[in-house]
Specification:
It comes from Catellatospora methionotrophica. This is 5'-3' exonuclease. Residues 3-271 form the 5'-3' exonuclease domain. The chain contains 13 helices and six strands. With 305 residues, it is of the alpha/beta class. The protein has two domains: 5-178 and 258-304, 5'-nuclease (Rossmann fold, 3-Layer(aba) Sandwich), CATH 3.40.50.1010; 181-255, 5' to 3' exonuclease, C-terminal subdomain (DNA polymerase, domain 1). It has a six-stranded mixed sheet. The protein is globular, with a radius of gyration of 21 Å. The mean pLDDT is 95.
Length: 305
């Protein structure tokens, strides 16, 4: 069996690590919380041991709320805007992200983003361009759209944590949402997603959205049927879809992730030993990260063997 590329949604995991590991249980000697870093490193260790990848990359948000998406739907992620602008991030998390990137760099794990785009877009491009198999790791439901059995792309969905990840192929997506992975973006546009500020079509929930995709195949076909007086819709449904015409014209462009970004050129090979062991040791000692760093280094050596 060919070893996979593990493409990790870094923001998804470090937010989960921050909220999953109590700050008081993971502090540096100077009292600074390092819970997100410790939790993230342990998640990566679990993934390396469980998935045995030969390549690994952590995708970053270089723009968590791209202007081109906001121009299409003004409510996009507005609930996550800080009063002074920018993303609302807990005060104790923000400095940990920089520390995490330092540790990953010392280990030799590649982490990057692309200007003007979200981590989702980086992951979409990796899934479309990298040699299979590709396993995308995220707790973001939008990434179910990337699942593609033919290309060997799976989503390791960590909505309930890495220890309880759901290994999703096309059959799993169909069982979970009653739509194929190729129809997930259109389904999500119809249903909406409060976590992203997408209103969806008023009065159309998950079951109705799935039935529409199952019947018509795509959002374009649904919109065409709405315009056809002969098409049969449940009472009131045509009216709801007509009222949402402007939203439906742009929502899929917001929900669909990019697959054609120009990615930085890096060797994504997962190292067998740390790239800079002295720097990693210094960071581990300074920030009370010796245990998670040791577990990760041991997992890398075992993976290489």
């Amino acid at each position: 069996m060919t070893a996979p590329l593990l493409a990790i949604d870094a923001p998804s995991l470090y937010f989960r690590a921050f909220h999953g590991v109590p700050a008081k249980a993971a502090m540096a000697p100077n009292g600074t919380p390092v819970n997100a870093v410790r939790g993230f490193l342990d998640m990566v260790t679990t993934l390396v041991k469980g998935r045995r990848p030969d390549r690994l990359v952590c995708a970053l948000d270089y723009d968590w709320r791209p202007a081109w998406r906001v121009a299409l739907i003004s409510t996009y992620k507005t609930h996550r805007l800080a009063p002074e602008g920018g993303e609302e991030v807990p005060d104790e998390l923000a400095p940990q992200v920089d520390l995490l990137l330092e540790v990953l760099d010392a280990v030799g794990i590649v982490a990057y983003g692309v200007d003007g785009n979200e981590a989702d877009d980086v992951l979409g491009t990796l899934a479309a361009t990298q040699g299979p198999p590709v396993e995308v790791v995220s707790g973001d439901r939008d990434l179910f759209q990337l699942v593609d059995d033919e290309r060997g792309v799976r989503l390791l969905y960590v909505g309930r944590g890495v220890a309880k990840l759901e290994d999703c192929d096309e059959a799993a997506v169909l069982a979970k949402y009653a739509v194929p992975a190729s129809g997930y973006a259109d389904f999500a546009a119809l249903r909406g997603d409060p976590s992203d500020g997408l209103p969806g079509v008023a009065g159309v929930g998950e079951k109705t959205a799935a039935r529409l995709i199952e019947r018509y195949g795509s959002l374009d076909a649904i919109v065409a049927a709405v315009a056809d007086p002969a098409a049969d819709f449940a009472p009131g449904l045509r009216t709801k879809l007509e009222a949402a015409a402007d939203y439906l014209a742009v929502a899929p462009k917001v929900v669909r992730v990019a697959t054609d970004l120009k990615l930085p050129e890096h060797d994504l090979t997962l190292p067998a030993v740390p790239r800079d062991p002295d720097r990693l040791l210094a960071l581990a000692e300074q920030w009370n990260l010796a245990s998670p760093c040791r577990r990760l280094v041991d997992a890398l050596a075992e993976n290489a063997g």
